[in-house]
Amino acid sequence: MKPPRLLAVLVSSVLLSAIATGTRAESQAIPTAKSRSGIAKRHSPLAPQQPPIIFVQAPEISANQLARRFPQGSWLVRTAGGSAAQNVVNLTPEFFAAADPQVSFDASKVLFSAQPQPGAPWQIWEMRVDGSAKRQVTRLESDCLRPGYLAHEALVFTVVTAEGGRPVSQIYVASLDGSEAHPITFGPGNFQVETVLKDGRILVSAASPLAPGTQESGGLYVMRHDGTGLASFRCEHRQPARHAQAAELADGSIVFVKNTPGQTGAGGELAMIRRGALHNSSLSPGAAVSWSPRPQEGAKLIVARTNPASGKSKFDLYTFDPASGRFGEPVFHDSKLSSVQAAPVTAHEVPRWYWSTLNPQARAGHFVCLDAYQSADEPTGRIAASVARVRLLILENGEERSLGEAPVESDGSFYVGVPADKPVRFELLNNFGAVIRAQRSWIWARPGEERGCVGCHEDKSVAPENRWPLALRRFDTPTRLGVEAETMRVAH
Amino acid sequence: MKFNPSNNPAKFTRAISLALRILVAFSFAPLFGATPKIPAAESEPSYLTPLDLQLSPDGSRIYVVCEGNDSLIAVDTHTNRVVAQVKVGHKPKGLALTVNGKTLYVANEWSDTVSEIDGATLAVRRTLKAGWGPTSLVVGRDGRYLYVANGIGNSVSVIDLATGKELRRFSSQRSPQHMALSRDGRRVYVSNVLPHLRPYDEPPISELTVIDTQKQVVAERILVPGVIELREIAEAPARQGGYLLVPFMRPKNLAPLIRVEQGWVLTHGIAVVRPPLTRSPVAGSPSPQVRGSQSSHATVSLNPLPSLSGRGWPAGPGEGEVTSARVTQVLLDDIDYYYADGYGAAFTPDGRYALITSSGANVVQIVDTARLAGFLRRNPAVEIANRLDSARQFVIGRLPTGADPRGVAVSPDGRKAYVANRMDDSLTVVDLARLRVTSTIDLGGPKEDSRLRRGERLFRDARYCLQGQFSCATCHPEQHLDGLAWNLETPQLGRDRVANRTLRGIAETAPYKWNGHNPDLITQCGPRIAKFLFRSEGFNTQELQALVAFLRSIPLAPNRHLAANGQLTDAQERGKAVFYRRRTNDGREIPYQNRCDTCHPPDTHYTNRISTDVGSKTQYDTISLFDTPQLDRVYEDAPYLHNGMALTLEEIWTIYNNYDTHGVTSDMRKEQLNDLIEYLKTL
Question: Above pLDDT 90, what percent of chain B?
Fold first, then answer.
């Protein structure tokens, strides 16, 4: 961290601590949106039974990188809920910018990311839903954004650093008091937290394909809070697009915003992967540009969308019914400010937790592939060519190099040990050593992780056949590539 | 003859290990308690535990079999109230009605009897003797014969209802639990919960046994590859081809259990069993009706069996012959969402819907049969058995039920369906016009859940596993075993495959696991289960205690090989002498550590609770010491040895004891081994 930035962090931390203390003491004296922005009452037709919402107001929303989404600042506001027209209360007047509100499971608190002043790093904060009792959760030198509550008093968030002048983001997990912050992603990909699924897995977005010379798009992935089990969520790349802004509905469907390459400006097309479906389907009617769909009570959403008729790129909040594919009445709109990232202040289900199977002392992780021939890219679902070996490539210091090769059995299985927490990718080779298929993204194995793969690029809706993989019948596997034999494996 | 360790390392290791472990066991006995005491019996309310149900022909009554309090209950469908109840035999499981509904039959699993009951008065008229462990039954259309599936006997009894005597007995496969009579009365279908006994490193094959009621023979043994736990059988109306739907579980026991997502461990679905393609009497080609239905679809070349419609089931060719009944498997799970433990199955009278209960997921699934038929026409059968995106194309609803939904029955007018909620003592009522649950019928059981009851709920609830994929009961059907060897995560993947073990009568048999590493059930079922099996959060402390209390309460079934008075047969007596013998046939003394009763002492359920090397280690095992299994009801526990490689008790010694490392048996005559096994079955 550069000294000026460090100084800014220190000053802002002290200042904000004082403000937070003051807020706790004078919780009634919360300034309104008007006092901060000078904007008058705005329409909010939330029905009486609807809970209040907390959302982001901003003069400008940019499609820029994560830490620069609100170039003119932003703040969290809260509606009172219920009444037909009302003021909104500014919950974060202390900050230059605030965003990404996440309501706690019991609806008493809000996690959010905030930037005390322009140029200062974003950090994760928590406050009561009335804006009181603010406390800083993370204290990293880098930008910390997009938090999500995990079970067992933990949180997941996105950390953005600059590498070679370009922002690079990874996912971190920490205790809710901010301690024990550690990364759980280890590859290039600009991983960003999308949401925490009810089954406890973390839905993230990441750029892919990633290998040199390929066009970049972005997809959704799932992983566990210990960084294991990273897997493409449906692996949809029928058309290049960035999938982000994802949220889970009550029935388990995933709604997200899809940006096609070349699309400028914030927001995009609203799309949905319905529960149990393999592919997404478009939801956006008309020419509206959508952003930050969030689940509302029942099966509906609150979506920030532009008004195509206005010709402006300003977002207002609307209800949206995924069943009918139609926007409802506006939830909140302001004549000048954009309103995005609405979070209903309601209690919701605590996601599941997992026991980690990692072995911190291990230096290696393992990949077991049951059938490398499976390929969603092939009309038959299988690679026709004969696969003889698999080559493992590792990325270190920006350079890609081969770690070695391992045999692929006739049933398509292979079993390799690799250095833990290092980005690796696979290439399938034929008998002559020619590359048949090459992985276009980077993955990793965590220390002691036994990573099972149905195939290398299989259809995610296909469960494996029941057979004893030939690679596991051999007595010389796992083939260790770049690692020594270890005896610290966890037995159960 | 001197013992030379280098000649028989397994024997040497076993001897040393036994000596050391006995020493350790005795040394620490005061600390850990050599013989754990069974907790004082918990005072258990008399729960009903409804399992099977059927409606009277006029739809005015639902008859419900309650295995918990040994009763049959009649519910008035107009008032939804219990109107009559009668005690039957012990652990009733199945129910059958005559065509006119005037007589009911209940299979009493632990009494080995069938209760014949007057449908009007609910009075027990007579009690008929059945085979071992009757679990399900059907009455022939003419009312002359009763067909009874004997779950322990692995057979089907045919009982002449005029005399009440068993006429004949057919062999089924393992653990037949469910039966159905075809709509034309010509066939009895029997589903078997456990798969064929096969090599432990091959996928399972299950069987649907078909009995020809006219010829009184086994007409077909329909093989359903890759699945276990075939459950209730529903037959579609004849105009839809009379195909069968049978819920199943599709295990992946051969791959290491290192994740659960994407159906890695198992999936749940239904077998669609269609009649064989019948040959025309003239040309020997498939019947025109079937052929016509195929030709209208583009996938004919890929799928020769695309249609659910057809002529129906022909008469079987003869006993035991495997025929070409067409079996297609489809999953009822969705990507990321699983519906564990399929159990009940029923069609609406018009065949529009099929209802499948998922007892681990607490739902009843509604299958739109027209959509299912369309799906099967469009997709090659061989490619859909593992697809997790199929169900959403034909499952049009999943309705919440009570806990542990089992049997399902549809009213004769097709307007309502009723589901027996085994752990809730209630029935869920489904309005089939609106496809909604409209009410719940309280059958009158105790209102409070005891600790054991809570434990059993947990045992049967799949929500504790990631994505609801499986419950404890999934791999321990009937609190027993699934007949498979699994490759649990071990220090070395692909190694140490271990056979599933029964949960019956295990309270005093610690330690647990084949490697004997888990000293108690709390250890066995706590974080270990959550971490390596469920891959999810698992049970909290209170839940774990309740679950363990339930596990410790699971009783052994009555011993069918032992006379009621405990008197042994001559063969059993001879076998007992072999079990306790001290000398070989030629007079050599059998070393202490190699006597049957050393490792299988009678006062501790025939296990010394010490891991021993009996020479069963294979090249795929990393250890040679395995927990000594208890021998109570050992005849129910096949396959045997740590990895299930011995398919029968005989094979333990005839194939896997070449060096007398598992007791001294090489000197035995065949008759002696037979006698020994006869005795073991009495334990």
Answer: 83
**Cα dihedral across residues B154, B158, B159, B165: positive or negative:** negative
Candidate CATH numbers 3.40.50.300, 3.30.470.30, 2.120.10.30, 2.60.120.10; the one for domain A3-344:
2.120.10.30
Q: What's domain B10-40+559-680's architecture?
A: Orthogonal Bundle (1.10)
| Band of pLDDT at residue B25, cut at 50, 70 and 90 | very low
Q: Which residue ranges make up each domain of chain A?
A: 3-344, 364-480
From chain A, the residues in CB contact with B337 under 8 A are 252, 275-276
Length of chain B: 683
Chain B stretch 504-563, residues whose beta carbon is closer than 8 A to a beta carbon of chain A: 527-528, 530-532, 535-538
Burial B586-622 (b: 16+ CB within 10 A, else e): eeeebeebbbbebbbeeebbbbbbbbbbbbbbbebbe
Q: What mean pLDDT comes out for the span A415-422?
A: 96
Amino acid A86: pLDDT? 59
Whether A200 and chain B come into contact, CB under 8 Å, resolves to: yes
Answer whether A353's CB lies under 8 Å from A150's CB.
yes
* Closest residue in chain A to residue B384, using alpha carbons only: A462
Cβ atoms B191, B176 nearer than 8 A: yes
Shortest Cα–Cα distance, B551 to chain A (Å): 20
pLDDT in tens, A285-308: 677 789 999 998 778 899 999 877
- Cα Rg of chain B (Å, integer): 26
DSSP A97: E
Q: Are A203 and A221 in contact (CB under 8 A)?
A: yes
Task: Fill in the DSSP letter of residue A155.
Answer: E
Q: Provide the β-strand partners of residue A327.
A: A320
Q: Which pTM does this prediction carry?
A: 0.89
Domain ranges of chain B: 10-40+559-680, 52-278+323-442
Residue B97 vs residue A39, higher pLDDT = B97
Q: Average pLDDT, stretch A305-326?
A: 86
Both tokens assigned to A396:
């270190």
Check pLDDT > 90 for residue A20.
no
Cα B417 from Cα B410, distance rounded (Å)? 4
Question: Three-class SS of residue A266?
Answer: coil
Q: pLDDT tens digit string along B251-288?
A: 999 999 999 999 999 999 999 999 876 554 444 333 32
Give B397→chain A minimum CA distance, Å: 13
User: Nearest by CB to B253, which of A462, A466, A471?
Assistant: A466
pLDDT at A38 over 60: no
State the pairing for strand pair A414-419/A479-480.
parallel
Of B253, B336, B466, the CB nearest to A252: B336
Kindly list the residues from chain B whose CB atom is less than 8 angstroms away from the CB atom of residue A251.
none
**Helix (H) or strand (E) segment spanning residue B61:** strand B61-66
Which residues does chain B have within 8 Å of residue A229's beta carbon, measured at their own beta carbons? 259, 261
Provide the ipTM.
Answer: 0.87
Strands B342-347 and B205-212: unpaired
CB nearest to B337's CB, from A252, A368, A478: A252
User: With an 8 Å Cβ cutoff, is B400 touching chain A?
Assistant: no
Asked: is A364-480 a CATH 2.60.40.1120 domain? The reply is yes
Residue A288 pLDDT = 79
**DSSP β-ladder status, A53-58 and A85-86:** unpaired
Q: Given CB atoms, is A357 within the 8 Å cutoff of chain B?
A: yes
B620 touches chain A (CB under 8 A): yes
pLDDT at B30: 36
Q: Comparing C-alpha atoms, which of A478, A474, A476, A475 is closest to residue A489?
A: A478
The string of pLDDT tens digits covering residues A430-444 is: 999 999 999 988 999
CATH homologous superfamily of B52-278+323-442 equals YVTN repeat-like/Quinoprotein amine dehydrogenase (2.130.10.10)
